[in-house]
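Why run this: before we spend reagent on co-expression, it is cheaper to look at a predicted model of the complex and decide which construct boundaries make sense. The entries below are exactly what would go into the expression plan.
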Amino acid sequence: MPSYNRRSFLRLGLGVTVLGAVGAGCAPAKPASKKEDSRTFTIYWNAGHGYQAYKQVIDQFGKDHDLQMNWQKFQWPDLTTKLTADFRSGNVPDLVEEVSAGTGTQYGLAGNVLALDEFAAADKEFGFPGDFLDQAVVARQYEGKTYSIPLHLTANGLLFYNKQLLSAAGSDQPPSTWDEFLEVAKATTKDKVSGCALNSDPSYAAPYYNQQKVDFSGAGAKQFMLPADGALKTLQWMQDLIYTHKVSPAPVATTDYSGPQKLFSAKRAAMFVSGPWDIGPIRQGSPDIELGLAVPLTGAVQSAAMAGSGLMIPAKAKDPKLSWELITKLAAVKTELAATKEAGMSMPRKSWAADPAVAADPNLATIAKALAVVAKQDVALSASGKAAQVNELWKKAYQQMIIQHAPVGPALDDFRKQAGAAL
Amino acid sequence: MIRRRQALTAWLFLTPAVLFFVLLFFLPIGNQLMTGLYDADGVFAGLSNFSRAFRDPEVLHSFLITLAYAAGTLVVGTAVGLGLAVILNQSLRGRTLFRSVLLIPYLTSVSIIGLLWRNILDPQVGILNRLLEAVGLPGQTWLSTHPLATIVGITVWSGAGYTMVLFLAGLQGIPGLYYEAARIDGAGPWRRFFAITLPLLAPTTVFVSIIGLIGTLQQFALPYIVTGGGPGNATSLYAHRLFIVAFNDNDFGYASALSLLLLIVVLILSLVQLRIGDRADA
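The model came back. Tokens follow.
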């Protein structure tokens, strides 16, 4: 009869623990979690777009299909980081909101998201691409394939202005040209109020350089920010708003793009240039501000930058057909109208634009005018797979010029050189 | 037989720790080394990712500012922590409360600290400029004019409590007898500090500096949250650069090589510090 002492039990217990740990570590994880996973539908979404209109659609979709809806919301940079890691691990969500047109193409050409043309062709009722505005569709296509469906269609370049502040400075009408903009900005700059506010996010420079007929990229020829004299004029003018005319504070470098909107809401800035996504926060945060919304400024031409998210299905999504079904519900005209009513967001469907509620809304009419002058996007840059890298280089150059007051010419030259090398 | 039994028992006790390190440290490091041998398109690239790091101006810039950040944080952080420890080692009223309060930033999530300071320091809507305006002082724009020094300051603020606790433990290990003898010999407070306190705190100082160095060389979250690595690339520390290479440029091979190079640098600097500590002890 073997004798057992405390040490024997300790040894036995430890042995069992180790074996258990090794066994658990070596066991395949999938079968156990598969059943639960198959009933969970995961969506990655932008934190600023979590509208009730979408929540209702998603909740109903979950009920209809007996699914646990896992609606995860992130800031854009965090969504991109998580998605990149997911693509590498193969553990992907079922549906993803696309940050901007072209991102889906970049992922699609790398085999990470699906081309959606076959789904759309088989689903005539959805009306893609026929019922969608061309610019929103074309920017998401490459070599005949569409990698995402437009969810929002907006324009960055709208002029937000505080009617009371402009009126107090003697301006009853918002500025329409660069000269007028500077004049009004000077007139409204008083005490703690700045005439305007520039953004630290480099994508907010796009309307300005588009208004000088500058193309951000010509990826085919590895060219950036050309013509050079237009680019120089634009960035110098922006820099002068801060350091020469002192009508805008220097923005602070952050990952947040809402700095000018916050200043405007705090009545510390009379004007800023942005898109419809800032209408909601101003209305909700500062209902006493008489918000004016004007069409994009005219430099050499009147222009705006296209913006707006899309929807894409990861190539390894569990059930792409199910994901497509949710896309058709989220991008249905009924949902679009509900989201517009809730948040003032503009949408890509022609039938949305034709709706009487939309046509009668003065802000939406202004957005529609801005959409009519959006600059063309360089699809080849997205297709190169280097768009994110080039954008990071542009961020560095832009912040050096606008925040750190670096000389504009050399900073632009450096950017062109580095971006060309990246391609 | 007893020896074998003892060896078996020892191995059983060691196995969880060995498994932990093998599965969670050595295997990932090996995996990273393998990934570092491939380029962004998954083609075998040998050691080119490693050699590329030495020619990459962005990486060299990020490495240099990381060294500056580490040096600033270590020097200022150690001095502040030691100063606080010396003050709160005296018999003051409410010292337990002060010690606890000073430790709160260290116990707070770095995300909260980052957001907190970003909001405090915002030149237009931040509370600091409101306070400065209220007392008639000009507003600051440190996040734009001195971004790296600002990040150093926030790091020191958040870590000072922890450093203070370590130094307090060291101070309480110094026998009061030495101070008594020095006092009898006529040594003043400064003399006692430099002749007794500082030399006897050498092991604590070495520990604080090694832990601090490892932490600062790996710093990512604070600049990411407060400045996003900007303005320009002024606060794009090495780990932030590494993150951009991996998740923005999608070049995991190069990012793996960069992280292994960082591991080597941390190991070398830690060994140097240990050697210096050994000499000081001797």
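The interface with chain A takes residues 8-9, 12-13, 15-16, 19, 23, 118, 121-125, 141, 143-144, 147, 224-235, 243-244, 246-250, 252 of chain B (CB under 8 Å). Residues 45-281 of chain B form a domain with the MetI-like fold fold (CATH 1.10.3720.10). Bring this page to Monday's planning discussion.
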